[in-house]
């Protein structure tokens, strides 16, 4: 004896349309914050992990790297010592602008007194030094007197972030794809 129960047929089409409209509205509302042109890649904030002391920070760190990309890419991800307050960048390059060595590290105030560019007539090389204050602020290289400076900026720390808004277009696509 078989027990066959009729299964009621539910129309899923109106529910799918309502879901699709909602997802499209979310996508449109979040559109302004979803594009890469609106992301400030220089305002890098590391994951929240325990800091070793109050107001601690990190700098890009490398010793005698050949170029800025590799220096930043392979920089150690560790907290600066407590006796440092700034990030120092020392850039050596030829008269044609080719980098010969890049050193980035955590620095004390005394190490940042000699910022600027100095040309060596003997070796035809230029050394530019810059210091900055803030979490991994030493992204760029100093190349002239305009950017070889001692930059002190007090970063504004906020508890909120716009990061969840960036995931809305991805979430919308996940819900929309099965409906297409």
TrEMBL record:
Mark the transmembrane ranges: 12-29, 162-179
Where would you find this protein in the cell?
Cell membrane
GO function term, MF aspect, one: acetylcholine receptor regulator activity
Question: What is the protein's membrane topology class?
Answer: Lipid-anchor; GPI-anchor
The organism sits in which domain of life?
Eukaryota
Q: Which UniProt keywords apply?
A: Cell membrane, Disulfide bond, Glycoprotein, GPI-anchor, Lipoprotein, Membrane, Signal, Transmembrane, Transmembrane helix
Which positions make up the signal peptide? Answer: none
Q: Which InterPro entries match?
A: LYPD6-like (IPR039457), Snake_toxin-like_sf (IPR045860)
List the Gene3D superfamilies: CD59
Q: Does the keyword ATP-binding apply?
A: no
An annotated GO cellular component of this protein is:
side of membrane
**Name the UniProt record assigns to this protein:** Ly6/PLAUR domain-containing protein 6B
**What's the encoding gene here?**
LYPD6B
């Amino acid at each position: 004896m078989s027990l066959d129960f009729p299964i009621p047929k539910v129309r899923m089409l109106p529910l799918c349309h309502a879901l699709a409209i909602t997802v499209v509205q979310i996508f449109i509302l979040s559109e302004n914050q979803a594009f890469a042109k609106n992301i400030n890649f220089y305002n890098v904030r590391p994951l929240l992990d325990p800091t070793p002391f109050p107001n601690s920070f990190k700098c890009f760190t490398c010793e005698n790297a050949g170029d800025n990309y590799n220096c930043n890419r392979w920089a150690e991800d560790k907290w600066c010592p407590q006796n440092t307050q700034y990030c120092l960048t020392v850039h050596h390059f030829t008269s044609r602008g080719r980098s010969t060595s890049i050193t980035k590290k955590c620095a004390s105030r005394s190490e940042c007194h000699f910022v600027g560019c100095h040309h060596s007539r003997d070796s035809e090389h230029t050394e530019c030094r810059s210091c900055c204050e803030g979490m991994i602020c030493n992204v760029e290289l100093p190349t002239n007197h305009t950017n070889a400076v001692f930059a002190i900026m007090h970063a504004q720390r906020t508890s909120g972030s716009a990061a969840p808004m960036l995931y809305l277009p991805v979430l919308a696509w996940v819900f929309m794809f099965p409906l297409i």
